[in-house]
UniProtKB/TrEMBL annotation:
Keywords: Membrane, Transmembrane, Transmembrane helix. This is General stress protein. The chain crosses the membrane at residues 12-30. It comes from Virgibacillus kekensis. Residues 41-66, 114-151 are annotated as: Disordered. Residues 43-57 have a biased composition (Low complexity).
């Protein structure tokens, strides 16, 4: 069950990265200079594609082998990049989970301290009220003693 949830989270993360890249790429094309550079690069790519097409016609097997090697290398590099991003994500996630646990523990301690302070305040108020009653009683007895002495 947990493995399925982890796969879903990884999938959501990769979808988020992809969507972010597409949105970022689209946003950069709003700039005129960037569009010009993209046009120039596309022209360069077009020339490279034309050259590759003629190489395929002249040496199909060699070109295929070369492209397969490049594709495997690119896939390896991409896998390493994805693994690195996943490690960074996992590390950040672990740190966040640890921080959340620490905040929760601190919050629980704060709540407990507030409860103790509340109880201590009630106890102090009760003591003050008892002392007040004792003082009233002592004052009353002192008055009686004064009255007795005045007779």
């Amino acid at each position: 069950m947990q493995a399925t949830q982890e796969k879903q989270e990884k999938s959501l993360f990769l979808k988020g990265v992809t969507i972010g890249a597409v949105v970022g790429g689209t946003a950069t094309l709003l700039n005129k200079d960037t569009r010009q550079k993209v046009k120039q690069n596309l022209s360069s790519v077009k020339g490279t594609v034309s050259k590759t097409t003629s190489n395929v016609k002249e040496n199909p097997r060699e070109t295929k082998d070369d492209l397969m090697t490049k594709a495997k290398n690119a896939a390896g590099v991409l896998k390493e990049a994805v693994d690195s991003v996943q490690k960074i994500y996992d590390k950040a996630n672990d740190e966040i989970v640890d921080d959340v646990k620490e905040v929760k523990k601190d919050s629980e301690m704060a709540v407990q301290s507030v409860k103790e302070i509340k109880q201590d305040s009630k106890d102090a108020l009760n003591t003050v009220n008892e002392t007040k009653q004792d003082l009233k009683s002592a004052g009353s007895k002192a008055k009686q003693a004064k009255d007795e002495l005045a007779k």
